[in-house]
């Protein structure tokens, strides 16, 4: 996937073709990058699993195989100058899009298997367990949002669906293409289901990264050495992140651009931010759990004392 991202970057530099108002190599470039971090995250999480290692190995290989098939179709369609997603212009294009749908379903199911294995795994650190399990569950929800894009849009249904060239869309309320945000390509005139899809999928990396940041800060701050505090903060962030996925999904389904929220969306965003801030405040105010007092027993005559000269070194 990393090599594919490099090849797509070269394509962006040397191929000036445009498809659906975007550089034709932009889609494979973003997909290759996304699959790179997705694969690395799943590989690390599988390494933490202590149960069903063989099942996890097979599930990981299914993710690899289906990802490769997905990217082979996307890249092949770019070479042909055709859309990969939602394209039913010819029987061949429709067959490729159907194959992509099947691979995505299988990939989602394999990720679900990995998630179930991680739910059964016992972690020594409860904050790590929350970060990994929460990341996987939210990522599965985010991936599932992609299935909404395959449904006919309101405009397509209104057109009677007679011999359509395209079925499905990632935009809501406006046609795909048109004015969009730089880099992401998200619509600035209507809703865009790619936003909650992206946000949800990358919970797989961002929530564990938040925990890693707390662990890195622990040697510099006594507060973050408290495992209970790290657990509470990870819980707050996980719930808040799930709320963000729900909020962006709701906004997209209402046909509203991310950068142009209405008053209702702003109020909902404010409520979410206040709730997360309150949760963080409660987590920080709670006193740390007292360290267990270890009873010091006097060494027996037959036992060596670690204070004796023989053990000083």
TrEMBL record:
Coiled coil: none annotated. Residues 297-313 have a biased composition (Basic and acidic residues). It comes from the Bacteria. The keyword Secreted does not apply. This is Uncharacterized protein. Keywords: Membrane, Transmembrane, Transmembrane helix. The chain crosses the membrane at residues 29-46, 58-79, 99-119, 131-151, 195-217, 229-251, 263-284. The keyword Repeat does not apply. Residues 287-313 are annotated as: Disordered.
């Amino acid at each position: 996937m990393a090599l594919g991202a490099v090849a797509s970057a070269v394509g962006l530099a040397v191929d000036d073709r445009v498809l659906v108002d975007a550089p034709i190599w932009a889609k494979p470039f973003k997909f290759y990058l996304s699959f790179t971090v997705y694969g690395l995250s799943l590989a690390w999480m599988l390494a933490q699993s202590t149960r069903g290692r063989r099942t996890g190995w097979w599930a990981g290989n299914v993710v690899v195989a289906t990802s490769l098939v997905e990217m082979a179709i996307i890249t092949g369609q770019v070479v042909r100058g055709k859309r990969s997603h939602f394209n039913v212009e010819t029987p061949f294009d429709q067959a490729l899009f159907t194959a992509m749908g099947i691979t995505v379903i299988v990939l989602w199911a394999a990720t679900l298997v990995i998630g179930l294995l991680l739910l059964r795994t016992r972690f020594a650190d409860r904050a790590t367990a929350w970060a990994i399990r929460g990341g996987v569950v939210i990522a599965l929800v985010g991936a599932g949002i992609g299935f909404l894009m395959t449904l006919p849009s309101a405009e397509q249904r209104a057109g009677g669906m007679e011999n359509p060239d395209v079925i499905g869309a990632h935009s809501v309320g406006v046609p795909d293409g048109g004015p969009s945000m730089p880099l992401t390509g998200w619509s600035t005139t209507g809703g865009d289901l790619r936003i909650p899809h992206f946000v949800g999928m990358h919970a797989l990396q961002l929530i564990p990264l938040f925990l890693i940041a707390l662990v890195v800060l622990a040697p510099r701050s006594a507060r973050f050495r408290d495992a209970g505090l790290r657990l509470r903060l990870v819980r707050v962030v996980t719930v808040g992140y799930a709320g963000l996925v729900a909020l962006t999904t709701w906004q997209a389904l209402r046909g509203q651009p991310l950068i142009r929220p209405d008053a209702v969306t702003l109020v909902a965003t404010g409520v979410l931010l206040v709730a997360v801030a309150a949760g963080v405040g409660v987590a920080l105010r709670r006193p740390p759990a007292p360290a267990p007092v270890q009873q010091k027993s006097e060494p027996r005559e037959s036992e060596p004392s670690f204070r004796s000269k023989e053990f000083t070194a």
